[in-house]
Backbone:
């Protein structure tokens, strides 16, 4: 297979999506003939820096391939680690291309605008003779069991809270709420406070509070989250950015607290249940939610928004409705992937059904042994096998825990089985280095809200 002048060898293609071109395969083939050194750095808050020393061809005939490779590399760095400034050294043509692409109205306008908003800093591309040195600020978090703690987990359809004493849950509550459709931030605030007070009634005192929430959180502040999708920007800035901080301190005063992304909490829960660090947690549900705990059991402060990281190079890849980019993880590792593949498998889904209901319809067919449903899950497994090799290249993760509604039932077993087969066939060098698995009962007992309770360290 040839793409942008690069010859790519793929042995395993998804049966319902034969045009799939794994980004990792393209990258390997591209770099096998690229010889001109180029360095890219992405700066995020507090001077933290992600750096990639790589190569391009630097010839007119390969300019399109060079630009494409660097574009996807930068997008991956931005959504994996986050940042508001790109440094480029080694090639002014690449710098000029990125300056145009990552600009208002440019090819990557969404990324440009999103990162500016999240980091509260104008986005820019800078040419330099030498990019800055890499710098990270990982933080040990989670696994703190002593004392009387509250863990709160904010989901899109329900909120959960746990009261925990010395690592044992003494109370838990799950309440349906509608954060994504409510434009009044006081609705969210009151719901959070109600949950905290409900848990506190079952504790002799409150020593610490941990929060797990969908979205991007920096220094415990809400920078972007679908939970507050309908809240106007002025109210978001005034009442949402510090909503968890206000709710905790208004209710309990000066107690230790931590607010982090729910994907990272899932990875922490995985670390607790496995008894080992270096865990990448991937939840396939409404979207692709990801968290990571490094080899020393620390969270990294990275965005880990792999839903927007490219995984497929094919020109006809499905477009994400929000970012308007194509070939990104959300369309391969969420209910969207099941829905996308259903017609190709000969399964017609009622257009009046919600995405979650469409997923349930396919899952029902899967339980009945429908051949089309089986082919959907096998295809997602093929996507996943290729992509896990890429994620390993990015993270160096030892364990991958696969969670979420898409991974439930017989379909999840097929996805995992096919992913392992593709990994073994296409990437045998990863045997023994990468372990992909489903959560066990111990992980399920830990629970998201209970794991959140373990986040803060007592003073």
Residues:
């Amino acid at each position: 297979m040839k793409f942008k002048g690069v010859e790519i060898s793929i042995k395993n293609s998804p049966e319902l999506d034969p045009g799939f071109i794994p980004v990792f395969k393209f990258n390997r083939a591209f770099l096998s003939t690229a010889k001109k050194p180029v360095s890219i750095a992405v700066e995020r808050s507090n001077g933290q820096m992600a750096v990639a020393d790589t190569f391009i061809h630097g010839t007119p005939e390969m300019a399109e391939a060079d630009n494409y490779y660097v574009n996807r590399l930068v997008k991956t760095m931005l959504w994996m680690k986050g940042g508001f400034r790109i440094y480029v050294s080694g090639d002014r043509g690449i710098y000029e291309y990125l300056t145009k692409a990552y600009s208002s109205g440019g090819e990557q306008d969404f990324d440009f605008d999103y990162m500016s908003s999240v980091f509260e800093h104008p986005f820019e591309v800078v040419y330099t003779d030498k990019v800055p040195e890499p710098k990270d600020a990982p933080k040990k978090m989670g696994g703190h069991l002593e004392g009387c703690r509250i863990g709160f987990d904010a989901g899109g359809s329900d909120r959960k809270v746990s009261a925990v004493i010395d690592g044992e849950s003494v109370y838990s509550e799950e309440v349906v709420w509608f954060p994504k459709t409510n434009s009044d931030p006081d609705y969210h605030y009151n719901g959070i406070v109600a949950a905290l007070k409900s848990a506190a009634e079952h504790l002799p005192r409150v020593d610490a509070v941990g929060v797990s929430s969908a979205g991007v959180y920096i220094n415990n502040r809400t920078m972007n989250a679908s939970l507050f999708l309908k809240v106007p920007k002025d109210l978001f800035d005034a009442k949402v950015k510090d909503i968890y901080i206000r709710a905790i301190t208004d209710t309990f005063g000066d107690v230790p607290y931590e607010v982090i992304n729910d994907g990272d909490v899932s990875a922490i829960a995985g670390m607790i249940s496995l008894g080992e660090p270096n865990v990448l947690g991937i939840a396939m549900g409404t979207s692709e939610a990801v968290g990571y705990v490094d080899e020393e059991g620390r969270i990294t402060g990275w965005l880990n928004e792999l839903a927007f990281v490219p995984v497929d190079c094919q020109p006809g890849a499905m477009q994400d409705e929000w970012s308007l980019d194509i070939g990104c993880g959300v369309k391969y590792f969420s209910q969207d992937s099941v829905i996308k593949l259903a017609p190709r498998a000969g399964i017609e889904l009622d257009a009046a059904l919600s995405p979650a209901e469409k997923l349930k319809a396919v899952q029902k067919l899967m339980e009945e042994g429908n051949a089309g449903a089986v082919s959907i899950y096998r295809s997602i497994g093929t996507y996943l096998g290729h992509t896990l090799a890429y994620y390993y290249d990015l993270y160096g993760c030892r364990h991958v825990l696969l969670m979420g509604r898409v991974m439930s039932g017989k379909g999840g077993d097929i996805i995992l089985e096919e992913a392992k087969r593709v990994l073994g066939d296409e990437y045998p060098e990863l045997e023994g280095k990468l372990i992909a698995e489903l959560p066990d009962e111990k992980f399920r007992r830990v629970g998201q809200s209970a794991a959140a309770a373990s986040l803060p360290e007592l003073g």
User: Anything to note?
Assistant: The chain has 14 helices and 19 strands. Residues 49 and 133 are 7 Å apart (CA to CA). The chain has a mean pLDDT of 94. The radius of gyration is 22 Å.
